[in-house]
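Lecture 7 notes: from sequence to structure.
We start with the chain below.
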Amino acid sequence: MKRFPLGVALVTSLVVLVVSAATLLSIYFAEHSYIVPLPGGTYKEGIVGSLASIHPLLSKNDSSAGDTTSLVFSGLTSFDPRQQKVVPDLATFETSKDYKTHTFYLNPKATWHDGVPVTADDVMFTYEMIAKDDFPNKTLQKSFTRVRIEKVNDSTVKFILDEPYVFFPTLTTLGIIPKHVWQDVAAGDLANAASSMKVVGSGPYTLDVDSTAVQEGDTILQLRRYDNYYGDIPYIEAIELHTFATNEDLLTKRNSVDAVYTSDMAVYDALKENERFQSYPSRSKQYYAAFFNLESDQLAKRKTRLGLGLAIDRNSVLNENEGFFAINTPFVTYNDNLWETAYELDKAKGALYDEGFRTPSAEEVEKKTRSLVWQAMSGTLIKEYGVPEVPAILPVSNENADVPQQGEPAQETNGNSNNPDNTNYSAPSENTNTNSAEPKPPSLEETFDLSKIELYSVTLDGARIIDTIQEYKTYRHDSKDNILEVHLVTLEAPEFLVSTAQYMKRQWEALGVKTTLDILSRDDAVEVIRKRQYDVVLIGQELGYDGDIFPYWHSSTAKLSGRNIANIKNATLDDLLLELRAPTIKGDDTVESALGKIKDKIERFFIDEMPALFFFGANDYYVVSKRIHNVFVGDLVLPRDRFVHINQWYIKEGKSAKGSISVNEFFSWLISKVSS
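Predicted structure tokens for the same chain:
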């Protein structure tokens, strides 16, 4: 046997001991430590579109530039997806009891990216800029037309409203701009100046004019963490926003980015198959509904609208369109307890029947056919057509005489407009007693042999009678023989609106409702909607941060070009909408609980009146690399809200001990492991 020198054996034993001890210490530390985020790393997001203007007063809320703006600029408030409400950001706020005065107190730590403190003068300057006549963003300007702003002191501003509005803080998520940078720029020149001036904000990340790079043909916007940010400092050091011209370009280079935010199911499906990504679905506040025009004669009655709604199976609509969720209220929610919004075809038929719309019986179809043929062909022509001649006199006592069917009264043809030559083909009664209860004899119109008439060849007012009768048999009519007909309008894009409208047409046609569908371009649809040239319009709307549906449903907006496209004018609803903007607090109620009760009443009203069919809300998807940790998205109102908690995301990580670690604790742990 070969013997090793004593020194080698000792060294080997020592190595084994050290390795074993290190292994034990590693296991012990792993069990007595936790992961902690560390500063550093670069987050890369892919965006389809351009970043034309990084300016909070010019960027659209749903644009790529709007997303970037939210990282660089701060609003007085922001929307918190965790709490699902607007919360303080650059300022805390309080609202007066009458909801007319809203006071904001700036964070004293807030500074612009150039080190200048954020003051009340900056807030005043921002909102006064919006009010200028030559301010280019008229939509934004309209939100503040009846608002006055006052400076209380260097850190406090007060907004004073003409009318009470509990939701006003939701309007102040708008980014504030620095007065000392923009004070020499006229409102009308903002767009031109924004493309060349240095971007100075107060948000968690900074951006310089020279921070745009081009890499392999793609434009990359680079942002850096602002270490003097007034809130929690983000862990992620840098952000790169990679812009692509099309979805196809983005998917081709998906491995070069960490995340993509999309509402396009094709993009989402392609990304979720990649194992390095994790998906975060988000229910947006955009929804789609079929709005009834309540000024349409056909849809004036509630049960008619109810019947049309009960014929629609929302599950079928959702199954045909991925990326949506069912709703049946104007607040983008779904109430399981509402039978009125379920799929009930029998109840749909019953509702229409109750309103007097019914399909004709076989007897009524024959009667209608005879009437049309009689109008199209005089009695003489009918005889010439080969119909056996009917005796001129038919005694009423003749038991074999044909009499009208029950429920089908004999028609008086003497002087009837349906008798062109005013010839009396009905037989006079042999009984001269005018009080006789004997029925009148049938007329030639009621007794000629209809089977001898070739209906395909008979026309009336340019239409074949056979086609007129087919339509008469197919659709529901009222008591005056008016067909129940609706004119349905929708947009040609997105495609799911077209497929949903086509489904609605099929369902309503099967119900006996003649449905004309117009699929329009956006420009044409805007004009049709402006002029209210529709019975039903299938279109999308957006619910903002506050759930304030006043602009869509108050009587004051039902005029032409107004946003109340259902044309509903109802005093009860108007009162509820005003109460929603200024809730009365009773007893132990909070503002939130009072608003909840009002919304419940509004939901009930919509079920009772049925001015629209609320179908589905849209899902968005945030697909993020698994190397980005602690991401929270939640249900968003605007895409930019996904960045509200970006200061909690991290890429790099380390470990920290759980409490103190001592030799005694280690050996106690070791003994417990050995004994177990």
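Points to note: The radius of gyration is 37 Å. The first strand starts at residue 33 and ends at 38.
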